[in-house]
């Protein structure tokens, strides 16, 4: 392995934004550590990368094991300069099915915190490094369709602010990435979305944010303006808009039935 190259680990590299980021970082000369639940998909991705990479199976639902795997991966890579914590799940969950709620919290919130903990401790010991968390514009407000998803992203963004405060007098960077809509499996089939960008464009924007050492980056950047207005909407107006959206999406009767907890 070429020890002079920078090393990045991507948690959740097998599809979508993580996959595009793996390609981007590899083309920029990083040695990349790829992780995800499917080793087969990661090995397929490895064949497409121009630079050296290492793939490891890792499931953040089994968090202690995942943290152990990450520590090992850092050792095998002979260090880490950058970690992208991208693993995430999203389920539309009008009926508040607990399995779905629990999985979103486990992967997006608890999984994120466990992985960030390993990375933060590693970087603190080495007095350098960069943690990038892929949160969402959804972190700003609650969602009746996916309460656990938006809450888990709010957790991520708040946690990253805490880490930024902790490391504020050090060279360690913590970057909160808030994408809008990116054309991946996660949003397929959802209606009424706008401003959708490709995973490659998202990866380019995220790479720019890392290069510039930003604290928070909206992807694309115009989402910052949208969210400025969105966060200022009174709650009554926000809920009215949500009910109108459900009625448009599903028809009035199905909307009511679906919104009712079973
Ligand atoms: N697409 C959007 O519009 C959008 C918008 C805002 C934010 N985001 C966020 O962007 C991130 C990437 O999402 P995406 O859009 O690229 O969707 P995606 O294609 O479904 O990617 C999700 C990634 O997470 C990994 N993952 C899922 N569960 C995991 C687990 N238990 N352990 C380890 N890895 C796991 C998946 O790999 P395996 O399946 O191999 O495990 C995959 O690499 C997510 O955090 C998502 O919340 C997406």
Describe this structure in words.
The chain has a seven-stranded parallel beta sheet with strand order 3-2-1-4-5-6-7, sandwiched between helices. It starts with 6 loop residues before the first strand and ends with a helix. The chain has helices spanning 16-27, 39-48, 63-76, 98-126, 147-166, 199-212, 223-232, 235-250, 252-259, and strands spanning 7-11, 31-36, 53-57, 82-85, 130-134, 173-179, 216-219. The radius of gyration is 19 Å and the shape is globular. The mean pLDDT is 95. With 262 residues, it is an alpha/beta fold. The protein has one domain (7-235): 3-Layer(aba) Sandwich (Rossmann fold), CATH 3.40.50.720. Helix 4 (98-126) runs parallel beside helix 5 (147-166). The longest helix is centred in the middle third of the chain and has 29 residues, at 98-126. Bound molecules: NADP nicotinamide-adenine-dinucleotide phosphate (NAP). NADP nicotinamide-adenine-dinucleotide phosphate is lined by residues 12-18, 36-38, 41, 58-61, 86-90, 107, 134, 136, 179, 181-182, 184-187.
